[in-house]
Amino acid sequence: MAQEAAAVANPQPQNQQAAAVTNPQPQNQQAAVTNPEAQNPEPTLAGNDEEVLDLGNLKSDVWNHFIKIKKGELIKAKCNHCKKLLAGESNNGTSHLRNHLKSCMQRKIHDGKQKVLGANFVTKGKREIVATQFNAAVSRQDLAVAVIMHGYSLSMVEHLYFRRFLSGLQPLFSVPTRNTLKSDIFKMYESEKSRIMKLIGGNKGRVAITTDMWTATNQKKGYMAVTTHYVDNSWILRSHLLRYDM
Description:
Helices cover about 40% and strands about 25% of the residues. The protein is of the alpha+beta class.
């Protein structure tokens, strides 16, 4: 009798069934499976299925206006101006890309006749902001001068992110290849050489020649520079570097 009373007073099977009903663990586990955020808490970008690819050895100037992307299993060329996707495989060539640039309305908006703000450097580090026109020839010459004066590597112009940086500043500027930049530098050298020879030839006074020699400690190489000095017809002292040997 005592055992029956204890069983009635403590109906464990009924409590377990009630607990199973009020706490449906199998259903919670199924909810966790159908909720991928619980398994992968990292945020994802919706629609971000484009992967930007390295241009590698692509040297055509048309790639200044396109980026190569991988969209799914396809390789596409994406226009920097209108964002249109075109065939980007290497065997597709670049003729269709050039034809697109001719008809791209977004590119025509930023044509060379458009006035842009430019900065003219004046004395004491101040700058004067003026309206000017983009000149591709002048920009290419400035790039060559920068490489000469700072000793930059010629391969810098073929770096992907350097080309993208320049394209962002001025989409109309076609970044030259390494060989084109080298040719520009040699043309500049021949032009300067001819100009200096005319200046020295037109001088009626005497000319002094000096040599300077030094050794670069980091490269263990010796250098020699030959410089000419003279006073021109306006009594101004002029100096020109004639030769630079290593």
